[in-house]
Amino acid sequence: MKKPVLLALLCCALPLSAQAQFAKPEDAIKYRQSAFAVMGTHFGRIGAVVKGEVPFNAAAVTANAEIVAALSKLPFDAFGPGTDKGGNTKAKAEIWTEQDKFKKGATDMQEATAKLLVAAKSGNLEEVKKAFGATGQSCKACHDNYRAK
Amino acid sequence: MKKPVLLALLCCALPLSAQAQFAKPEDAIKYRQSAFAVMGTHFGRIGAVVKGEVPFNAAAVTANAEIVAALSKLPFDAFGPGTDKGGNTKAKAEIWTEQDKFKKGATDMQEATAKLLVAAKSGNLEEVKKAFGATGQSCKACHDNYRAK
After folding, report:
1. What are the residues facing A147 on neighbouring strands?
2. Do A37 and B41 touch (CB under 8 A)?
3. I want to staple A142 with a disulfide (CB 3.0 to 4.6 A). Which of A105, B3, B105, B107 is the partner?
């Protein structure tokens, strides 16, 4: 085994250091966009309930929140060095020059989705609305800073 | 509330009947492709272990198998009527003319991924190899029949 691969594996505590696991930048970009797309779809379904377009069903909201919370953990390992270019990405260069701030934004969002799941399980629509709003804010914070229009 | 919406919601037992939840065929196509892309990435990481390219780490394989099993449940609700066209899809028309067979293929794959997760948790590489092979066969069966080259 080549040394760089071995080193990458040694660093591979959970959560998986996935950035070393993409063969090409395009693969990482496609992966993170896909994870965000799936997450966004299920987040949007909770949004439809929050907006009153779909009646509140705690089981359905919980199922969506489970997916959102699980998916929230995936994309960020795919923002490794060198993945700023290579596909059709809107990722701004600041992601790689403000790593601490970017990672804090990721953690904030993951924590918000965990709270959204707790709110969904509570069966209380007002709690869901509050947690949905907070999660949306956490999404928006990173989009405003790190996603090109 | 309009009647069709109400009817769609009444049918909305878990697993969510998501096909009614996409505004446009393109949205459903993007969603299912995204779910397959994320699933494929993590399945591929287990494949690298099975092929001996990456050393066996039961925790890492389990983490990947968890994601594969969870994601395996998502794409199929997005193959609703009218989603055969609208995006850059390789889905073949037979999906909609052989619904029973297609759904059986989906279920087979979901069951295979559940077994892969059990194998991963066993910590036994030989079990992982066997379950990985069976899961790969279940992927291939649908790709051969229902995905254009």
Report:
1. A91
2. no
3. A105
**Candidates B9, B16, B31; nearest CB to A37:** B31
Percentage of chain B lying above the pLDDT 90 cut: 84
The stretch B78-105 carries a mean pLDDT of: 95
Name the β-bridge partners of B91.
B147
Reduced to 3 states (helix: H, G, I; strand: E, B; else coil), residue A147 is strand
Q: And the tokens for B6?
A: 């109400």
The angle at the Cα of A63, spanning B109 to A77, to the nearest 5 degrees, equals 70
Total-model pTM: 0.87
C-alpha distances out from residue B121 to B50, B115, B124, Å: 15, 10, 8
Mean pLDDT computed over every residue of chain B: 89
Q: Which amino acid type is present at position A124?
A: N
Beta strand ranges found along chain A (DSSP E) = none
- DSSP SS3 for B88: coil
C-alpha distances in Å from residue A25, one per residue of A3, B126, B129: 21, 32, 28
